[in-house]
């Protein structure tokens, strides 16, 4: 071996050793466990947010105990109560007046007494009615007062009460008894004896006040799948207004375009061969139309969002803080998520931000579908916000919070992990600029947001409720619809009302309308409303007078009265509509927040409809009214079952009062038309099915407050781009760590 060959072999050996050392060093630097970083100093929270807090299970139990001992009438447990019984229907927190709360929060006043609102059904009385009591003080009640007349102007008629679980069970038993009277028809049409058919309620229930007659649509019930898309063509109308359940009966039966007075008549018509029967076989589990079972084996896990040094938000009880934001959160069992006392950088900008109602209005050529106008608050938007699935419904590392409620039972219930809070990286810059002229630099900021989320399952539909808070002081509120479509049996001219999505399934067209209340307090309680929009003016060119040009100009207007500030659904909305405070910013403009609606709603109902007043909030994209304690909500849970004489009529809120320098509320409607199509099977996807609105600072600050975000980066061509002090992104490799993932658990089926 000559010297040259020996040197080559030596160099190869050294290169191999060097490569092995690099591999070992790389492995030695494997990410360690993430270390929790100290939280930023946020606004002090000394428990004052408890003034808005939902009731605890202990408080709910104390209210039930007090009512049982102090009303002087027998109370059945609502979980077993018949319509002819008295029972406690629900208990929720009774919030103090805004004046009381602000005296306590801002002026050092006394903490308002903590109270509950109890709804009772009095069926065992000469004049059955619904009565609401305020009970307090908590935690040990000593008084109650009837507030029904004060709130509604009189007793609430008993027929307006939401249908209880006990009633639904009794109705299902009645339907099963009636189906047994048509055995040959059921065998022919549905390959069934009726016991494996599932039903869905419709609403409202009749044609006039006092009616309580409901169409129930029948479907093939296949375990583990969405039966909502498996109609068999049979629908029944149940009369259930009587207090005595034994008096309930079927008054009409519908099948494949024909109406019958009973299942007995239907059976006779079938035997006489006068019914055109379309056989709908019960599908096998592995072939069922609505199955959500994955059709592909699991693959490699997708990207995971986690906090390298722990969450940057802080939660205490019902209060969360994050980079200048301070938010109090809760859940109304009927209307769903509600937020209060929202501050940014030490100033209150929103007193209340709450969901009010969700309307789903259907079309069909079957009676159940064509008569359905669901008002989901009456079913329980918050009550049916179940446990969230970690890693799908919310990021795996989100914080999950329990919610407690009492409805249709004397025992409080808990929906575990039913609200989630997390910081979300949207993978988009909030702002950025790359300068390639004059000087070379880059400045930018990630678009991160704090998200508060809940998801409600309301029969077939699932609604994802999001409240998002950004570092520029903006708030985004949005809702996505998913879950199963509702469907009708396809017959006759069914495709005039939707699309065929299965062998016998018509995906029925429908509207989603969602209503929100936003009590903005911009630089104080007293605000005004201004619109800014663009117009054109024809002017001569100053430098060339023989020529003209169309110059855009800013049209400014202050809206003086409520009627001016009620914007009908199909009328143009000013592109800049702002709540203004009394004081200017540094540049002389009134400090303001802009309301920006992103929505595609259809007409909620013609105003000529006898039930339109019950959902008259749907007339308006946006309406601004003076805030009144006697107008706390835009609707009522009692409107669903008596829309012909609504308990609360939103249109009456708009009575042309002045809205200049007043405490104002924005009522915002968002929605969209959904025409189901083949891709809605098995489930409607959230992509493209989301609407909402923004609340954005508009001259509220002197400059963009996101400049004070700790996430901003800036570097120039003359700087070291990897310097952590200028570019926090450059620090990420040193902060690399492996998150500690809690084990996946789910107990959401326990409370059904």
Automatic annotation (TrEMBL):
The active site is at 376 (proton acceptor), 461 (schiff-base intermediate with substrate). Its EC number is 1.4.3.-. It comes from the Eukaryota. GO terms for biological process: amine metabolic process. Residues 75-143 form the Copper amine oxidase N2-terminal domain. Contains 1 topaquinone per subunit. Topaquinone (TPQ) is generated by copper-dependent autoxidation of a specific tyrosyl residue. GO terms for cellular component: plasma membrane. Residues 1-19 form the signal peptide. GO terms for molecular function: copper ion binding; primary methylamine oxidase activity; quinone binding. The modification 2',4',5'-topaquinone is found at residue 461. Transmembrane segments: none annotated. SUPFAM superfamilies: Amine oxidase catalytic domain, Amine oxidase N-terminal region. It holds the Pfam family Cu_amine_oxidN3. Keywords: Copper, Metal-binding, Oxidoreductase, Signal, TPQ. Belongs to the copper/topaquinone oxidase family. This is Amine oxidase. It comes from Penelope pileata. The gene is Aoc3_1.
